Amino acid sequence: MENSKQIILNKKYWKGWSLNWNVLSILAIVVALVENLLVTSSETVDNGTYQLFLLVFIGYLFCVYLVGYFLSPRVKIYSGHFAQLNFSLGILLCVQDLLTEKLGILTLPYFVSFAQILEQMRYDAILLFESTISSLILWIISFVIGTLIGVVLGILLGRYRQFNYWSFPYLKVIGIIPAAAWMPLTMVIFPNSFLAEIFLIVLSVWFPVAFMTIGGVQNISPTYFEAAYTLGFNEHKIIQKIVIPGALPNIFIGIFTSLGLSFTMLVISEMIGAKVGLGWYINWAKSTGNYSQLYAAIVIMALLFSIIFALINKIQEKALRWRRVAS
């Protein structure tokens, strides 16, 4: 069991551990910090938050490398795989700081340094936190509803030919229409913007999930159903024990396909009708011409959506762990 876990880990984090790259990655962040401290700024910027971020990042990398080298082989594999990326990040931060804040080659208002973005995030921390929570709640509600509708419809359409015959042509027409096209209508039909936003995000989610679920159900070998009938399974048990597990890989493909669409629709819907949320915050920043606010919201979105993607990927790995054992 331990060997199989180690093999999976080595496949995922395939770059070997290197002392040189680990040291260089720390040095790259140190160089970015020294550059920010010593090079004179062409703009008035409070670099305290950025410098604290770099110090924390240096400390984090140092701790991870020490733990990996002396205590944990798993952490060592992890740190070795990402060392080159951390090095490139340090170089990128240094170059970006020079081009914007220090030398002024890329000038305000459209180009801002990462230090300005972090300072804006600190200044607007409460508003950004409230907007992030609002967007997250809206997304979770909408995505769960859209996924459930997609899975249920996909199972019904894939399992029952009569239901597929009468329903799929109509559902297909509705599903391929971009969710954004319904926006003007939803603002009139629904009593408030929150319900309209939920409806739009659900529209962007359900069809990819349903479409992939149909394929997953229809690709299940008929021999499984024959064996189930022989064992006396009723329809409910067939759905539970054969259809859902058999279609699960396709269901997750549909979920991952709909993730990007749901994120896009979340931002668009909040830009149009919301009074809070990251999409609203971006729209507000655009109207005031404060591009550091805009970039701050984009950074938070990148972090939030990456965390969501990673969590769903973990759920997929857990739900489909039998595939790793089989391989």
Model description:
The protein is mainly alpha-helical and 327 residues long. It folds into 2 domains: 2-115, no CATH class; 125-326, Orthogonal Bundle (MetI-like fold). Helix content is 83%, strand content 0%. The protein contains 14 helices and no strands. The chain has helices at residues 2-12, 19-38, 48-70, 73-102, 114-123, 125-159, 161-176, 183-189, 193-218, 222-230, 235-273, 278-288, 291-319, 321-326. Helix 2 runs parallel beside helix 4 (73-102), helix 6 runs antiparallel to helix 7 (161-176) and helix 8 (183-189) crosses helix 9. The longest helix has 39 residues, at 235-273. It is flat, with a radius of gyration of 25 Å. It starts with a helix and ends with a helix.
In short:
The chain is an all-alpha fold and 327 residues long. The chain is built from 14 helices and no strands.
Please report the number of helical segments.
14
CATH evolutionary superfamily of the largest domain? MetI-like
Number of strands: 0
Strand content: under 5%
Overall helicity? over 70%
CATH class of the largest domain: Mainly Alpha
Subcellular location: Cell membrane
Keywords: Cell membrane, Membrane, Transmembrane, Transmembrane helix, Transport
Main location: membrane
InterPro entries: MetI-like, MetI-like_sf
